[in-house]
C-alpha cells in the first residue's frame, strides 16, 4: 500500500510560486528522506502536505484520500503526525503535560511508558517545564508528543538540526525503532550521513522540484551524484 502519493504538487506563499511540480511516493512502512540545499523546497513540501500553504494544486493522497481542498484541521485526522523544525514545545507545561496535550486521532498510539522507554532522557525530566529542557530533550519531546495521537504517517522536519552527536545518535535509534514498529516516516534532513543511515530511499530536491531518487547504497557508492545537487 502507498501511504503518501504526491503528484505534480504546485504551491504558493502569497504570489510567490515555490513548488513547481513535486512528485514522489512513500510506501507503507517506508522511511523516506528529502534532501536538498537551504531553500530547495523541503520544508515547504511538508507544509503543503499539512495544508499550511496559501495555495496548493496537484494531488496529495494520504492512504488513498485526496487532501487538496481539505481544510488544514482535517488533514491530521487522516493519520498524519507532524513534528516541525521549531519543535513548538509548550514552555510553561511539564514534559508529561506536553505529551498528554495532543488529541488521539486513532487507536494504536504509544502510551506514556512506551514513549519514555523510547526516550529515557525524558523520564527524569517528566515534571520539568518544557522551557527548562535542552535542545535535544525538546526534540525528543516534540517527537514523543505526536506518537500518542495514533498517527501512522510521521513527518519530521530537520530533527537533528543543531544537536550534539550523542543526541543525534539517540534520535536516529528512536526513528529506526519507530520504523520497526510499522510507522511510515518522511524525514527532511540536511545531515547526509544521518539520512543514509536511516532511510530506505532518498529524494533530492532543488528549486522546488524532485531532481533525483536514490538508495543509501547508491549514495555511498557514488558520492559525486549527491555533490552535484547538494554542493557538499
Write the SSE topology.
Blueprint: E1 2-13, E2 16-27, E3 31-35, H1 42-49, E4 55-62, E5 65-66, E6 80-83, H2 95-100, H3 112-118, H4 135-147, E7 153-157, H5 165-180, E8 184-188, H6 192-198, E9 201-206, E10 209-214, H7 216-221, H8 223-230
Parallel strand pairs: 3-8, 3-9, 6-7, 7-8
Antiparallel strand pairs: 1-2, 1-4, 4-5, 9-10
List its salient traits.
six-stranded mixed sheet; 232 residues; 31% helix; alpha/beta; 8 helices; four-stranded antiparallel sheet
Protein model, in words:
The protein has 8 helices and 10 strands. The chain is of the alpha/beta class and 232 residues long. A 6-stranded mixed sheet has the order 6-7-8-3-9-10, sandwiched between helices. A 4-stranded antiparallel sheet has the order 2-1-4-5, covered by helices on one side.
Q: Describe the sheet with the most strands.
A: 6 strands, mixed
Task: Kindly report the spatial arrangement of strands forming the biggest sheet.
Answer: 6-7-8-3-9-10
According to DSSP, the number of beta strands is: 10
| H-E string | EEEHEEEHHHEHEHEEHH
What share of the residues does DSSP label as strand, in percent? 25-35%
Identify low-pLDDT runs.
none
Tally of separate helices? 8
Q: Separation of termini? A: 34 Å
Mean pLDDT: 92
Rg over alpha carbons: 17 Å
* Coarse morphology: globular
State the share of residues found in helices, binned by percent. 25-40%
Find the structural class using helix and strand composition: alpha/beta
